[in-house]
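Just scan my protein:

. . .
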Amino acid sequence: MAKEQATATKEAQPAAKPAKPAKPAAKPAKPKKENRIVRYFKQTRAELRKVTWPSREEAIRLTAIVLGMTIVMAAFLGLVDYIFTKLFALFL
């Protein structure tokens, strides 16, 4: 029975062929790499398309709020600076 198995396995295996050296495959053409600056501007443009822009009235109102707060804070800091200047003049 062992002889029959050995014979069966020899018959099942094909004769070994000598290995041929593989031909180098043609390299696929690489797509041209995009310039980093061009890619940056394309991505920036895509992001700006997603922005929900304010209406003209809303933009004017928000600009007025920012300018008003800037003036108020400038006046407040100017007053604090004036007070500290007078206090230091008294002690020196």
Q: What stands out?
A: Residues 66-92 form one domain. The chain has a mean pLDDT of 83. The radius of gyration is 41 Å. The chain is about 65% helix and 0% strand.
